[in-house]
Amino acid sequence: MSDQAAHPLALEGTPSPTPSVATDGTWLECIECGETFAPFSAIRYTCDDCTGLLEVRYADPPGFDAFSGTGVWRYRDALPLERGVSAQEGDTPLYRVPRLEAEIGVEALRIKHEGMNPTGSFKDRGMTVGVAVARELGVDRLACASTGNTSAALAAYGSRGGMETLVLLPAGKVAAGKIAQASLHGARILEVDGNFDTCLDIVQDLAARGAVYLLNSLNPFRLEGQKTIGFEILETFDREYGAWPDRIVLPVGNAGNTSALYKAFRELVEAGHLEPADVPKLTGVQAEGAAPMVEAVENGTNAVRRWDEVETRATAIRIGNPVNAPKALPGIRETGGTAVAVSDEAITDAQRDLATEGIGVEPASAASVAGLRALRERGIVGDDERVACLTTGHLLKDPEAAAAAGSDPEPVPGDTEGVLAALEE
Ligand code: F0G
After folding, report:
1. For the segment 370-404, what is each residue's pLDDT rounded down to a tens digit?
2. Ligand 1 neighbours (beta carbon < 6 A)
3. Which CATH class is domain 94-118+223-405?
4. Tens digits of per-residue pLDDT, 304-350?
5. What does the pLDDT average to over 204-232?
6. Domain boundaries, the chain
7. How far away, in angstroms, is 20 Cα from ligand 1 center?
8. DSSP 131-145
9. Which of 84, 188, 223, 244 lies 20 to 30 Å from 40, alpha-carbon distance?
10. What distance in angstroms lies between residue 317's CA and the mean position of ligand 1's atoms?
11. What pLDDT sits at residue 41?
């Protein structure tokens, strides 16, 4: 076991406060001022009073014994609705990677491959909940800004729920597989002259004017679905390894997933099913060209500087203004985790390493493994740690990046002799 002393999880046994609004045991609460709101009474994404981020709260967050069934909805007692618009999301594999484990040099390494969800990324877990909430609220046009995966998931789940979908994408910066998905699933696709952060500014304005229902990770209901990654990792790791992971390493863009995992663990602590000292250290990884969260963690500040210029081959995390930072930074700090930036070259190397273990991921996903390697080399991760790396999206999302990282096809003549001759070269 690694040193758990630096593990000041502040939420030991924190009881849920009684909300000042009428609820069914579920309410929305501002993380800044504590104001509470009934969950489905009106459309809101942030606090009416102070514009702080909202979070879904439960009077009685459940522990492991409440979970039964399969997929994301196995965790329905920890979700704001009983059922969603589902395409059988969740239950993703937790792969063993013995060669990578030995090479990086940790006690245990497992890869939680979220690319195995229905549309090929973890976004499906959020959308199954978010789209169902949209239906509950009676809205008909769903929208998001996206680096690609959110748009694919929104398009698929929105169509499944019979709703209109609109996606705003940074022109020229979204991988081909993701645009193809959004397109075939029937989203209206707007290519914006600007980066992802500009797209999100615009879609927030559209939502504020009532033109669309926003399903970016600012939407607190979406993060509830993504929370289930944390429950699944703990349950599967424990079943297969007999212990929980010491650390979870994940790529960071808007920091929604980091916030969601932290919330999963806080709720398990609150339910008395997880000791604060056993909460995995949340460890975020960004690309060097888009690393505002890493900068904030290194500087020990909560004031995250917006990066106007961002660039990385890992286009999924080409984000300069991580809107969920106020939720995610406490998660990283209070679990004793950290954040690290990696180069595009290190990301591609990790993508190749995962591929040699038979695991195909898109570049942003490989950042988790590249980050773990960097932290291991610096001695920040110990050789006695049990680690789960989250790979967030499937290889086929970004065929160009995969082809560039892999080997080139060789032209050969159309006869056996010619093929044999080529093989002997
Ligand atoms: N990995 C992949 C493959 C992603 O698509 C994203 C985010 C992240 C990691 C980062 O997750 O934002 O929760 O920190 N993609 C969003 C999108 C922005 O539009 O698809 P985060």
Report:
1. 999 999 999 999 999 999 999 999 999 999 999 99
2. 121, 123, 146-150, 217, 251-258, 316-317, 362, 364-365, 392-393
3. alpha beta
4. 999 999 999 999 999 999 999 999 999 999 999 999 999 999 999 99
5. 98
6. 94-118+223-405, 123-218
7. 34
8. HHHHHHHT--EEEEE
9. 188
10. 6
11. 87
